[in-house]
Design a protein that fits this description.
The chain is an all-alpha fold and about 260 residues long. The protein has 9 helices and no strands. Helix 1 packs across helix 9.
């Protein structure tokens, strides 16, 4: 199997299982780069779950959205368990426990299409903040530039889903002003981080090639996100949903490459 084909296969599998990146080392223990990737994936899943919930509430791509939501819930649970095999120090252990507590409140909301959208918004933000703290703690424990790149590239996955989530909340008319601001900020952060990744000295020729493909997807994603006055709201939401998944898949390849450095 060619290298790129292998990476595509691995990334596609990871979206289903939540286990992207290098295999655990020393039995059931994870390496720190893998832990950074996985805790960073929890940031993404907090946003992806909300995106799928919103799509279902709006009646957009119901079959695919139901599948994405189920995958996101299952992957979040799996990764929480996996991270328990690498919790060096009380700080990381406490942050992981706080994240799990927030998740136990958030998950039932995603499982109920009748849940209050404002509650979904609020608890989605809480889980994201907790996952960010845990990821930063793993990066600090690693103390390497490679760990920083795994974190930064992994955050791009989260932003891809955050932009879609914000777009859909605004379309629904829930926290519309805040959602618009969230979308604009996330778009700027994604573009800035993309340039930082391209300029990083550790970015190999292969990584830069994959980032060029991300840039192509980013062009289409921006176009979809900027259709604010689309006459066909269902199609507009569908386009955002589809392009957000494409850019997520491509960024997953990039994170896997940084993790293996």
């Amino acid at each position: 199997m060619q290298r790129r084909e292998f990476l595509i296969f691995a990334a596609a599998s990871s979206l289903l299982s939540g286990t992207a990146g290098a295999a655990p080392v020393a039995g059931t223990s994870l390496s720190l780069p893998v832990a950074i990737n996985k805790s960073g994936r929890l940031r993404m899943l907090s946003q992806r779950g909300a995106k799928a919930w919103l799509l279902l509430v709006l009646g957009v791509l119901p079959d695919r959205s139901k599948s994405i939501l189920a995958q996101s819930l299952a992957s979040f649970e799996q990764i929480l368990g996996e991270l328990k095999t690498l919790q060096p120090g009380d700080d990381i252990r406490g942050l992981a426990q706080a994240l799990e507590q927030d998740w136990r409140v958030y998950r039932p909301l995603l499982a109920d299409l009748r849940a209050d959208p404002k509650a979904v918004w609020s608890h989605c933000e809480s889980v994201l903040a907790a996952a960010q703290k845990l990821t930063a703690a793993y990066e600090k424990a690693a103390g390497t530039s490679g760990g920083q790149l795994v974190n930064l590239s992994g955050r791009q996955r989260m932003l891809s889903q955050r932009m879609a989530k914000a777009y859909l909340f605004r379309q629904m008319g829930v926290n519309a002003t805040e959602a618009g601001s969230m979308l604009d900020t996330a778009m700027k952060e994604f573009a800035k981080a993309h340039e930082e990744l391209k300029a990083a000295s550790q970015s190999t020729a292969q990584i830069k090639s994959e980032l060029a493909l991300v840039e192509q997807q980013w062009f289409f994603f921006q176009n979809a996100l900027q259709l604010r006055a689309a006459t066909d709201r269902v199609k507009a939401a569908s386009d955002v949903a589809t392009t957000s998944e494409r850019i997520l898949e491509q960024m997953d390849l990039v994170v896997a490459l940084y993790e293996r450095l």
